[in-house]
Amino acid sequence: MSQGEAAGCGTAKPQDQGWAWMVLLAAVVLQGLTLGFPCCIGIFFTDLQHEFQASNSETSWFPSIMVAVLHGGGPLCSILVKRFGCRFVVMLGGLLSGLGMVSSSFCKSISQLYLTAGLITGLGSCFSFQAGVTVLGYYFVRWRTLANAVASTGVSLGFTLWPLLSQYLLDEMGWRNTFLIFGGILLNCCVCGAIMRPIQLASGSLPQSAKPEEEPGSRAEEAQLSNGASPHHPTLQQHTKRTKCFQMLQKYLAFDIFCQNKGYQIYTIGVTWMMMGFALPHVYLVPYAIHNGVEERKAALLISIIGFINIFIRPLTGLLSGHRVFTGRRIYLFSLAVLLCGLSNFICVISAEFSVLILYCVILSIAMSGVGALTFQVLMDVVEMDRFSSALGLFTILESTTLLIGPPLTGLLVDITSDFHYVFYTSSFFLISAALFMGLSFCALEKKNKLREASKAHLDNPSRYQYSEMSTEPKAISQSPPAVEYITSI
């Protein structure tokens, strides 16, 4: 929501009541349409392979690109939100998503799907989802935490319904007509965006970044101008461009935090490594089940089971992690959830019977609920909230990179060995190693900070980011909505 857009509204609209609840309903639908959509792509895996005579590696690039762009397009989305407002970006995302899937139904090669369904639909879903999350910060102040929790249930609903609908349409109409219908369904993101009308904020609740701020480079420019330098001087113009470029990178990609904050560094590396294996079951579970003789309808039901259990477990996990007992220790709860995800994959290796796969989906869903509920809460614990938005930018860019390359590399391994078991071996390796790395590293970091605190107790000059690395006290949450916030959900 841009400041100009907010000012364009005539009268102030009440927050936390009235139309805000319609916006929340739209956000639930929006998250189901966008974040829930990639889960159904595995159902088309076998048909696309036969249609285009493609290998596992070539076919898996299609969902990988979609998910990577969906997660990594946050910085671009936030720039558009600042410039044009949330409502416009949500509707733009709906148009791109619909256009991408309609175009996909006419593709003649698997590489064309990379562009249409992968890049265009993925980018559209990113715009709609992340702008939709941002607008909740404007409509809700008192009930913002509840609103975000309720909105996230849309992801679980999408996980439940998309696979069932996909399998039905695939059986009745084939994948091309199904993609065409999907394009029409995703256009409903535009309807959700239309509901998210601009809101007039009170002067006291304007987001921080909407207020005029002094740019770090402005003083340097003023100093040069006061010394007689012309504003059109080539040297000064180059300096200004470099300064603005640096400001942009620092605002949306927090490299300075990554270098100075050990907690953020460990967590970002751990989650980036984890994502190499996290998405593999979503892409390959249905093909694996079909390959081992499970009926296609039953195979599609497996993904729906994961989504259905998530509807109930994810909110409970969020409530549990919010208890003061876990304050400052959520990283260990997160590592435990990642470890359980990795260990659960061995169930698929033992047997591919449908009853065994159901057990696998139940355990995986419980573990995934913990990962999804804690991912960004842990990030808030290790990074100061005034830099959270920029820290999240670098975080999502890095994790989207491994989300992109993980499934195709594993598909190449399956092509070479002709053994789907390597999907779950690979997933377990990355998940278990990431869980151990994060848990043990934070344990060592905590001990190191305690020793440093004890040895330098007489000094009261903590480093800029030391508090966020070692604090065990809950942080105050700002009541003003974030001007730009790009969030992904796992």
TrEMBL record:
Subcellular location: Membrane
Region called Disordered, residue ranges: 206-237
Bias type Basic and acidic residues, positions: 211-222
Entry keyword Transmembrane: yes
Ranges for domain Major facilitator superfamily (MFS) profile: 20-451
Gene from which this protein is expressed: Slc16a5
Stored Pfam families: MFS_1 (PF07690)
Molecular-function GO terms, alphabetical: monocarboxylic acid transmembrane transporter activity
Protein name in UniProt: MOT6 protein
Annotated InterPro entries: MFS, MFS_dom, MFS_trans_sf, Proton-linked_MCT
Protein's membrane topology: Multi-pass membrane protein
Main location: membrane
Transmembrane segments: 21-45, 61-81, 88-106, 112-139, 146-165, 177-196, 266-287, 299-319, 331-351, 357-379, 391-410, 422-445
GO cellular component terms attached to this protein's record: basolateral plasma membrane
Keyword Membrane carried by entry: yes
Alphabetical keyword list: Membrane, Transmembrane, Transmembrane helix
